[in-house]
Amino acid sequence: MEMSVYMKKIILKSKNIIILCAMTVLFAVSCSTPTQNSQNRYAKSFDGEQISYNVYGEGDIALLFVHGWSCDGRYWREQVPHFAEEYCVITMDLAGHGKSGQHRKVYSLDGFAQDVKAVIEAANPKKVILIGHSFGGEIIASTVKLEPEKVIGIIGADTLHNLDETFTKEEGYKLIGLDGMKKDFKPAVREFVKQMMAKDVNHELSNWIINDMSSAPRKAAINMLEEYVGAIADKKTIDIFKEVKVPVICINADLWPTNIEANKRYMTSFDVKIMKGAGHFLMLERPEEFNSLLDSSIKEIIGN
């Protein structure tokens, strides 16, 4: 009898240890709290390229932030702590950027959309709102058809200004100064990025962005621009939005005008919120204002 009681105690103690260990493991693999640095994770894209991403916070709805050309997940640093209080927040580096692989020969919008898809599948949120800056707008739109059961809306940050805008590849290359980048990449990119800044932008922030983007991998960065300009010239971006059936909201600066009526012709649902006097990197330049507009846009989508 005494042995039986003793054994029961041992078994009970063992069960408690097992439960405690299981809880420890669950905590270790759960999303990071907003005040912590998330552990860097990797997802495998369609071509085997390793895509770096981080997860913060918790929630059934994830906000997946996609950066623009020659940027990376760090450009959302002012949004992560704010939104991870309420949502699961995911930042990522597209192929050819940041900590992700740089082995791809062609950096197309479709390939980048596959990168986003890979992260969605790896993180596996119940539902996701995609948020994209600059050419990230077209990338997240391209992702919708790849993850129709997960994506409930997309939000652009200074992007998708005018789907009616057309130009030839040669005109597009001239517009962005591609020839100059091919000849002497760093100074050409510095000049290109300077044109996107607001007049009153913080000098330290401006220098950080310019220095960072002009330090991008030259070969990959040039190919991305060639592919992007080509997609616009061939009107592929218009075709992308014909398949987007979820709400589309943009938070744009007035540095370039947004043609609302033109965009509505190609989208099931489109709305825009304008930040007057802001530059292209509005989420870093005026984060409080941007976060407020982003918060209301998220709630509009969730309410749809």
The H-level CATH homologous superfamily, spelled out, is: Alpha/Beta hydrolase fold, catalytic domain
Number of beta-strand segments = 8
CATH architecture identity: 3-Layer(aba) Sandwich
State the end-to-end CA separation: 65 Å
Q: Please describe the biggest sheet, giving its number of strands, its sense, and whether it closes into a barrel.
A: 8 strands, mixed
The number of helical segments is: 13
Low-confidence stretches: 1-36
What is the CATH C-level name? Alpha Beta
Strand order of the largest sheet: 1-2-4-3-5-6-7-8
Q: Element order, helices and strands?
A: HEEEHEHEHEHHHHHHEHEHH
What is the C-alpha radius of gyration, as a whole number of Å? 22 Å
Averaging pLDDT over every residue, what do you get?
Answer: 90
Strand-residue fraction?
A: 15-25%
CATH topology heading: Rossmann fold
Number of domains in the coordinates? 1
Q: Structural class of the secondary elements?
A: alpha/beta
The shape is globular
Helix coverage percent of residues?
40-55%
Secondary structure blueprint with pairings:
Blueprint: H1 2-29, E1 41-44, E2 50-56, E3 61-66, H2 80-83, E4 88-92, H3 109-123, E5 127-133, H4 136-144, E6 151-157, H5 169-176, H6 178-183, H7 185-194, H8 203-213, H9 218-233, H10 236-242, E7 248-253, H11 260-264, E8 270-275, H12 282-285, H13 287-303
Parallel strand pairs: 3-4, 3-5, 5-6, 6-7, 7-8
Antiparallel strand pairs: 1-2, 2-4
